[in-house]
Structures are given as structure tokens and as C-alpha cells.
Design a protein that fits this description.
Chain lengths: 73, 367
């Protein structure tokens, strides 16, 4: 299994978290991408983008109340 | 409660919010608000600026309870669902400027995106030029986003910072109810500190408690559903994500039907309430507004809801809107029902130049 690509989208305004996630999806094509977000809106938007792009999405809550969204294909 | 929240964060959330706004905004007009102005975030901030004496356009001065409700309703939702996260540091000064220029543009058109959609739903065809301009402005903003535009990251901030805007709203509510008036000058004009219109749009308003309740309800819904009248177009074009877009579509259709039932649908270009018929500057004003809102990350309603979550950068954007409204009505930039103000076209061009420079130059700093 290849390395996990991590995208740090914490603190960014809409639509940048989803935009960064999409750029990673388009660049990688397949594999594992982890997106760090710290707002509910970004968490929902990135998860939806991942699912709509055909990736499996799991959300890991982090101790500091941010989230790590793991997308796999 | 959590199942309600899950429903609102699903794809149904913006649709429910759109239905609520589409019914309640025309009702607010029936209950006393100006025509096709059940809700207009820019107009209402402009009225607040006037009530505080930041401009002396006597016909547009009132502390609009809907704005207060938007922030406090979103605050309640954010507290209940643990999304009250005070934050700041994402280029606050630029957000302040964007708030000013978004307001300049919207006041040339005479309405924010919310009111553009509501005007269309009331039969005001001039709104079509505004909405076209809005889409073009958002499109230009998308180009900058694709080129790497960013205002950088916000950072978690002390809880107290997140309470600043909600407290400001409570103070405004106190000023609205107490309405301190120190007297009149030699010419008989009120000296403030709070000014309320006795004629014109500022004098037209639904009963305080009804306006406040509607604001609270929509603020609560919109915080959960992430409703955004600019994000709707932006996400549909940029991300092929139509979740918010359906919310706006449903808003327009519901408001149209509600207006039809209430006898408030009056199709045409001429003699529309608080509107003018200059196609070019209806369009141009909203190109500027759409670009500025996109660069700031969301529509003016969304900025208010974000302040309810403790986002102090959005608070700066709102402060910029109120200052911008003060300038717009002091220096003849805002339009009237007869057409654009003397400096309206100039400020739209100047604002576009400023926003394009911001779009080309603001990037996340690499550390």
C-alpha cells in the first residue's frame, strides 16, 4: 500500500478545503488521502466530495475537536 | 435533536431553509417590511448604519431585528451542537475591505443576493440583470480560487472573542427598544444617537418581535444547513456540488408561490419597490458584490451565521459592510429608485480593481 497523502485544510474558508481535497483526488487518482479539517462545514463538504468522486470515506474525530477524513480508492 | 441536526446537515437542509425563507420573507413584507425586502442583509445593515448615525439618509434608518436574530439564532445552534469555535487570523483587514466593497456593489443594485432572488420571486425583472452580474462576479472569484487565491488560515481564539459579535447584537437590540433620542437641532432634525426613519423604506418594518423571531429561526436553520446564497452558485460551478444550489432554487420558487398567494407578485421592470431600471449598473453592481462575497468565502447572510459560530473574521466583514453602507449613503454611491448615484459607477469600477488586485495577490503565506 502506498503512502498516505495528507492535506491540511484546517482554518481555511469555503470552498478551499473541498477544493484542496479535489486537487489531491485528481492528482493521486487512487490510494489513500487524509484531509484535516476543523469545522463541521468543511468536514461535510470534503466527505461529500470524496463520496461523490467514488472514494470510500471514514471520519476520525481528533482530540482537539478537529477531524481527519480518510479517503480511499 | 441530533436527528434534526443530521437532517439539516444532509442535502435536505438547504432545501428546508429555502422553503422557510421563501415563505417567511414575503410574509415579512405583508407584515410591514419594504416591498420585495422581507430579508436583505445588505439593506438591513445599511439601515442599521443609518440608525447609528453613520449616514444621514433619513429614509433608510432602522435597527433591523432580522440581523440580530440571524446572529443569535446561529449562536444558539452553534452552542447546542458544539460548533461554537471562536477563531480569527485569516487576513481580517482584507475581509473588512471586502465587506466595504461588497456593500458598495450591492447598494448600486439595491440588494444583496438574498434580495436579488426575492426581487425576482416578486416579479421584479430588473433582478435578472443583478443575478446575471452576481453569477459573473462569482465566476471571476472562482478563477482566482483556481489560481490559488487564499486569505490564509484562521486560528482558534479565546472564547471571549467569539462573544463579541453576539454581544454587539444584544446591544443593538437594547438600542432598538430603548431608542435613545437626545433631542433636535435648530432645524428640527433629530440629533440621535439613534435615528429612525419616519418616511421611506426605513420606516417600513414588521413588528419587532415577529422580525426577531423570524431572524432567530432562519439563523438557527441556516447555521445547521450551511445555507449560502453565493456558495450555492460557487459550489455548483467549481465543485459540481448542487446541495446549496437546490436551496436557492427552492427559495425562489417558494417565494414566488407565496407572493402569488399573498397578491404580492407584480411582474415588470417599471415601478418596482426599492429598485431602479438601469440594466448596466444593476449588472455591474452585482459583479462587484459577487466577486467580493466569493473572495470572502460566502454571502452576507452566511457571514452573519459564521459570527454566531464565533468567527471574528466574519465579524470584520460585517463591520466592513456597515462602514461601507455609511460611505455609500454619505458620498452618493448608493442607487435610488431613479437610478445609480453620482459616484455609483465610479465606485463599482474602483471596487473591481481593488478586488482583482486582492484576488491576484492574496496567497497563503508559506512558513
Amino acid at each position: 500500500m502506498s503512502d498516505v497523502i495528507t492535506v491540511d485544510a484546517r482554518g481555511l474558508s469555503c470552498p478551499q478545503p473541498a477544493l484542496l481535497a479535489r486537487q489531491a483526488i485528481q492528482k493521486q487518482g487512487k490510494g489513500t488521502i487524509a484531509v484535516l479539517v476543523d469545522s463541521g462545514t468543511a468536514r461535510e463538504n470534503v466527505s461529500r466530495l470524496g463520496k461523490n468522486s467514488g472514494w470510500s470515506v471514514t471520519i476520525e474525530a481528533q482530540p482537539d475537536s478537529s477531524s481527519r477524513i480518510v479517503m480511499q480508492k | 435533536m441530533s436527528s434534526v441536526s443530521r437532517f439539516l446537515t444532509s442535502r435536505w437542509g438547504p432545501i428546508i431553509t429555502g422553503v422557510a425563507v421563501g415563505i417567511l420573507a414575503p410574509l415579512l413584507v405583508l407584515w410591514g417590511n419594504p416591498g420585495n425586502m422581507g430579508i436583505c442583509v445588505v439593506c438591513f445593515n445599511r439601515d442599521i448604519a443609518g440608525a447609528l448615525g453613520l449616514h444621514r439618509a433619513g429614509i433608510v434608518q432602522y435597527i433591523r431585528p432580522e440581523i440580530i436574530g440571524f446572529v443569535l439564532g446561529a449562536l444558539a445552534a452553534a452552542l447546542i451542537f458544539k460548533e461554537f469555535k471562536p477563531r480569527t487570523g485569516s487576513a481580517p483587514l482584507v475581509r473588512f475591505l471586502l465587506g466595504i466593497f461588497a456593500t458598495f456593489g450591492a447598494l448600486v443594485f439595491l440588494g444583496c443576493p438574498w434580495r436579488a432572488y426575492l426581487r425576482l420571486a416578486g416579479g421584479d425583472w430588473n433582478a435578472l440583470f443583478g443575478i446575471l452580474g452576481l453569477i459573473v462576479g462569482i465566476g471571476v472569484g472562482i478563477l482566482f480560487l483556481r489560481m490559488g487565491y487564499s486569505l490564509g488560515r484562521s486560528r482558534p481564539a479565546p472564547k471571549a472573542l467569539g462573544w463579541v459579535m453576539p454581544i454587539v447584537m444584544v446591544v443593538l437590540l437594547v438600542l432598538l427598544i430603548a431608542a435613545p433620542q437626545f433631542g433636535r437641532d435648530a432645524n428640527g432634525s433629530p440629533t440621535g444617537p439613534i435615528f429612525f426613519s419616519t418616511t421611506g423604506p426605513g420606516s417600513l418594518h414588521a413588528p419587532l418581535l415577529i422580525s426577531l423571531a423570524v431572524g432567530l429561526f432562519i439563523g438557527f436553520l441556516a447555521q445547521r444547513s450551511r445555507f449560502c446564497t453565493v456558495g450555492a452558485v460557487r459550489d455548483a460551478i467549481l465543485l459540481r456540488d448542487s446541495r446549496l444550489f437546490y436551496g436557492v432554487l427552492v427559495l425562489i420558487v417558494t417565494a414566488f408561490l407565496t407572493n402569488l398567494i399573498l397578491g404580492q407578485f407584480n411582474p415588470g421592470f417599471e415601478k418596482q419597490p426599492v429598485a431602479h431600471t438601469n440594466e448596466l449598473w444593476n449588472f455591474g453592481g452585482m459583479v462587484l458584490a459577487g466577486l467580493a462575497f466569493t473572495l470572502a468565502g460566502g454571502c452576507p447572510g452566511r457571514q452573519l451565521f459564521l459570527t454566531g459560530e464565533g468567527d471574528a473574521d466574519s465579524g470584520l466583514f460585517i463591520a466592513g459592510m456597515i462602514v461601507g453602507a455609511g460611505f455609500a449613503h454619505t458620498y452618493s454611491m448608493a442607487s435610488s429608485t431613479t437610478g445609480p448615484g453620482a459616484f455609483g459607477p465610479f465606485i463599482v469600477i474602483a471596487g473591481l480593481v481593488v478586488c482583482i488586485v486582492i484576488g491576484l495577490t492574496m496567497r497563503e503565506a508559506k512558513v
